[in-house]
Amino acid sequence: MNREDSQLPTIPSKRYFTISEASNLCNVEAHVLRYWEQEFSQLSPIKRRGNRRYYQRHDVMLIRHIKELLYDNGYTIKGAKQKLSDEASDQETKSSSISAIRSELESIIDLLD
Hints:
This protein is mainly alpha-helical. The protein contains 5 helices and 2 strands.
């Protein structure tokens, strides 16, 4: 975590955040969030009446991660997209490995019974 992240406010324990709340929590302007929504498919807040955006905790965490990739680590938009995509596939690989291990353990338990 870098110095600036430690200065970001703690994310309150509530379900939804308006764009201005998300903007303040991540220290980026609202227009930047709207732009990032167009660029990063993973960032898709719920839209309600009047096309108002409501961000959830995972969206705020994603925004902070995108900000870190772009501003702190020097990634381009394209590079940050690729990094997020790589992280998602790494997570999927880990998840499928865990599922395979669980299945194997269940088979062993069945044999022991």
